[in-house]
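Progress report, Aim 2. The chain analyzed during this reporting quarter is listed below.
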Amino acid sequence: MLTPVYRPETGIELAVAQSVLEANGIPYFVHNAGFASLYPGLQLDLLNARTIMVPTFASEIAVELLSEYLPRGGGLRPGVERSVWHILRLLVEAICCA
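Predicted C-alpha cells for the chain:
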C-alpha cells in the first residue's frame, strides 16, 4: 500500500525530494511523473499534479526527512498564493481551458 507524502510544485522540488528519499533508502513512486509535464497549466490532482508516494511503513520517516529539506514540510496542501499575478494567471487559464 502506498501513501502520498509530498506534492512538489516544481521540478527542482521533485528532484530534491527524490534525492533525499534515495539517499536514505526509502522506496518511492512518483504519480504522474512523466504525464505532468505534457500539459502545463491548471494542476488537477489526478490529471497532471505530481505526487510522491511511499510504502505505508516508511511514510512517517519520509515526511520527517522531507520536512528538513523542503518548504511546507512535506504537506500535500501547498500554501495558498494570492498575489494579483497568480489570480490573473488562474483566470486566464480557466478562460482558455473552458
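Residues 72 and 78 are 7 Å apart (CA to CA). The longest helix spans residues 84-97. These observations will guide the mutagenesis work planned for the next reporting period.
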